[in-house]
Amino acid sequence: MKILLTGGAGFIGSHVAEKYLELGHEVVIIDNLSTGNMRNIPAAARFYEMDIRSPKLVAVMNKERPQIVNHHAAQISVPYSVSEPQFDVDVNVTGFINLLQSCVKTDVKKVIFISSGGAVYGEAEEYPTSERYSPQPLSPYAINKYVSEKYLYYYHHQFGLPYTILRYANVYGPRQIPHGEAGVVAIFITNFIDARQSVLYAYQEEPEGMIRDYVYVKDVVTANVLVLDRGEMEIYNVGTGIETSTGSLYQIIMALMHQDIAPIRKPARPGDLRKSCLDITKIKGELNWQPGYDLTSGIRETIGFFSQ
């Protein structure tokens, strides 16, 4: 089938594009290259350098007529969304509505939407947090991801547009961009390579840092394959169900890289959640998906990529 993948020049999107092509699908990538990179784009994919907010988007989709739209393009930084909330709305909501309007006009059969299990639930009282929990987002980024989920529900109700929502935990792996909370693994690794200190953000009463659920990018790719023809009108957490503090993550990476550099400790930033961990019972039961990589093996592969 033909799949249009927004953000396909980025960290996660490019891995998804490669797997779709490997499975024999036709892939069209739209990316404005604000954080993506041309070298990430598979040679077999057709590429349009374009912002999802562009009025020309519908013309590209009308020309290509994709059956599936996989939406990875986003403003991904929680702290940046706090400092620039209007920009976050513009990209993550207005841009997405432009994409949905284009989907309706070009008879797209399904949208796969990438949401954030690591952010939308907020400081959840249910922990690990399942899809049944009512999100309480605590940053503009998280709010806008949740709002986008609601727009999907509306577009299905109003126009019959099918969808699947994947709520990612903290994804890491090769090609990750070393900036922002989402890129903490890449930040630590590249800093160790360059013999620089890293910053470890933490609340005063929790000096080992925030707790997160880290999932390897190859496992995330598998979930994107499974929902091509399954899971319509469903939401799935994509994580590991295993909690890891930022301090523990730092120690694991430092040991694997045979380094001994103490981090710089700073207070938590606006929008930083104290803890986030996803219950993955639903995706295991309904799609027979489960992570194939533990944290050590995934980080070892990621170190190998950045060391090259």
Structure description:
It is built from ten helices and 13 strands. The chain is α/β, with parallel strands linked by helices and 308 residues long. It has two domains: 2-168 and 216-238, NAD(P)-binding Rossmann-like Domain (Rossmann fold, 3-Layer(aba) Sandwich); 171-213 and 242-278 and 292-307, Alpha-Beta Complex (UDP-galactose 4-epimerase, domain 1). The protein has a seven-stranded parallel sheet, with helices on both faces. Helix 2 (57-64) packs parallel to helix 4, helix 6 runs parallel beside helix 8 and helix 6 (184-193) packs across helix 10 (295-307).
Domain count = 2
User: Roughly what percent helix?
Assistant: 25-40%
Using only C-alpha atoms, the radius of gyration works out to 19 Å
Structural class label = alpha/beta
Largest sheet: 7 strands, parallel
What percentage of the residues does DSSP assign to strands (E)?
Answer: 15-25%
Mean pLDDT: 96
What is the general shape?
globular
User: Low-confidence runs (pLDDT<50, min 5 residues)?
Assistant: none
Number of strands: 13
What's the end-to-end separation, in Å?
34 Å
Task: Write down the secondary-structure element order.
Answer: EHEEHEHHEHEEHEEEHEEHEHH
Question: CATH class of the largest domain, please?
Answer: Alpha Beta
